[in-house]
Amino acid sequence: MSELILPSISLLFFTFFSISIAVDTLTPSRQLFDGETLVSANGTFALGFFSPLNTTNRYLGIWYHNLAVHTIVWVANRRIPLTNLTGILSITTTGSLHVTYFGSVNSSSMLWQSFDYPTDTMLPGMKLGPYLTTGLDRNLTAWRSPSDPSPGNYTIGIYADGVPQMVLRTAGGWLWRGGPWNGFGFSGAGPTQFYDISLYRVFLSVFNVTKEEIFYYFNTVNDAITTLTMDHNGTVRRNEWEASSENWNIDWLAPGDYCDFFPACGANGLCDTSSSPVCRCVEGFDPRNPVNWGRGDWSDGCVRAAPLGCHANVTDDFMLVPGAKLPDTREAVEDMSIDLDGCRARCLMNCSCQAYARADLSQGGIGCIIWTAEIIDLRVYANGGQDFFVRVAAGGNGA
Ligand SMILES: *[C@@H]1O[C@H](CO)[C@@H](O)[C@H](O)[C@H]1NC(C)=O
Ligand SMILES: *[C@@H]1O[C@H](CO)[C@@H](O)[C@H](O)[C@H]1NC(C)=O
Ligand SMILES: *[C@@H]1O[C@H](CO)[C@@H](O)[C@H](O)[C@H]1NC(C)=O
Ligand SMILES: *[C@@H]1O[C@H](CO)[C@@H](O)[C@H](O)[C@H]1NC(C)=O
Ligand SMILES: *[C@@H]1O[C@H](CO)[C@@H](O)[C@H](O)[C@H]1NC(C)=O
Ligand SMILES: *[C@@H]1O[C@H](CO)[C@@H](O)[C@H](O)[C@H]1NC(C)=O
Ligand SMILES: *[C@@H]1O[C@H](CO)[C@@H](O)[C@H](O)[C@H]1NC(C)=O
Ligand SMILES: *[C@@H]1O[C@H](CO)[C@@H](O)[C@H](O)[C@H]1NC(C)=O
Ligand SMILES: *[C@@H]1O[C@H](CO)[C@@H](O)[C@H](O)[C@H]1NC(C)=O
Ligand SMILES: CC(=O)N[C@H]1CO[C@H](CO)[C@@H](O)[C@@H]1O
């Protein structure tokens, strides 16, 4: 564990394409100096010191070695730039990786595993999500500006409370919810993104919850070059390198429309970009503040038109919302052992159950999510989404 090896492809390559001194192995006695690069075995990535646009600050980073557009995918010392060209990357005998100034190499820092500290870019195989054992949370954090890699206001990661979901946060709160994993992708990633078979050409996504960690990652297939980035201005996007145009294609981004902005229509509201106005109450609910609602201020949301029959031993009904992005799952529970009928029965048996839906759409549909608090951030897609069942008083809309 005391050697970091990124073998260079050939000396000939460096003769023609690199002005730096080729170093291919980092050992306690062989450090990497500013101006040198380590290049990965097949020439895809380079590691070295760089300066972002419009600054002389130096950062240790990894970039695509051969792309015409200089694209940084990882930065080590994003909060602590070097101010001159005497930076050194070194690895100690105990396995610590250090960025220091020449002459000040010291062995006291902890081992630093780069993939555990993503910056604003997710590469194939890199995981997002918390370690449940150590609490270390792997998330993408935007740069402050294109000239400043220090942490900006936007962060995207996996929020673990309730049923885990992908969340894009800003200084003021949640901005966009990717929602819970539905077996193919995140429920709120959009109408077609994870169902579009053409995208499987490019990447495969994996999500899992184990005793040790909750994680999401993607792998590329067919040598595609693809990343997920958190922009300084709050946009998360998936990028695919297009060799023919020598530039990045944006395959997908969020937030993309009004209904993407959390919590678009308030509690028990439903957002639908294909209707006007875009917000309405879920059937069986009325605006909490009809005057504000009528003016297009949706923040107060909606309340039940009639109380649930639960407490009077009257059986309630369910209102189907097709094509749904599943609402906030912070106060929801998942049970992978019951099917949709079992889910409905369990919901009816518990007075705090407000809604239910399938947990996983793969394998013909398995498992169940039950919501026990108000329905927050529900939207529908013209195509895509899934069936969502809202509990209402018998008689439906309370009329
Ligand atoms: C960098 O500086 C130039 C010249 O001042 C300016 O035109 C450009 O917008 C700057 N770029 C960024 C990303 O700040
Ligand atoms: C580089 O900067 C560091 C930190 O300010 C300083 O200790 C060091 O002497 C500088 N080296 C040179 C050659 O300027
Ligand atoms: C994101 O990761 C950083 C670094 O591990 C951590 O400090 C932060 O709490 C995480 N979560 C959010 C929402 O920023
Ligand atoms: C981050 O948010 C704070 C508070 O909303 C704001 O003052 C600051 O300008 C923001 N910073 C960036 C880099 O957007
Ligand atoms: C998730 O992890 C469990 C064990 O931790 C494993 O048995 C299961 O195969 C994993 N599922 C996927 C889809 O990777
Ligand atoms: C380079 O190596 C990586 C890791 O083995 C592999 O995923 C990638 O497809 C290779 N790329 C090329 C262009 O050979
Ligand atoms: C955010 O920044 C990216 C990269 O700088 C840019 O391509 C995009 O247009 C910006 N988006 C918005 C909404 O400003
Ligand atoms: C509801 O039904 C249960 C048993 O079926 C009964 O014990 C209870 O008293 C009933 N409650 C009301 C309010 O009718
Ligand atoms: C109803 O659901 C809540 C939330 O999941 C749970 O705490 C409670 O134990 C459930 N009650 C019954 C009777 O199952
Ligand atoms: C390699 C090296 O210089 N290690 C030193 C780093 O600093 C500690 C404490 O100051 C010394 O004990 C090491 O010898």
TrEMBL record:
Entry keyword Lyase: no
EC number of this enzyme: 2.7.11.1
Signal peptide, first to last residue: 1-22
Reactions the enzyme catalyzes: L-seryl-[protein] + ATP = O-phospho-L-seryl-[protein] + ADP + H(+); L-threonyl-[protein] + ATP = O-phospho-L-threonyl-[protein] + ADP + H(+)
Keyword terms: Disulfide bond, EGF-like domain, Signal
Domain spans labelled EGF-like: 255-291
Enzyme class per UniProt: transferase
Domain called Apple: residue spans: 310-393
Transmembrane regions: none
Identification of the protein by name: non-specific serine/threonine protein kinase
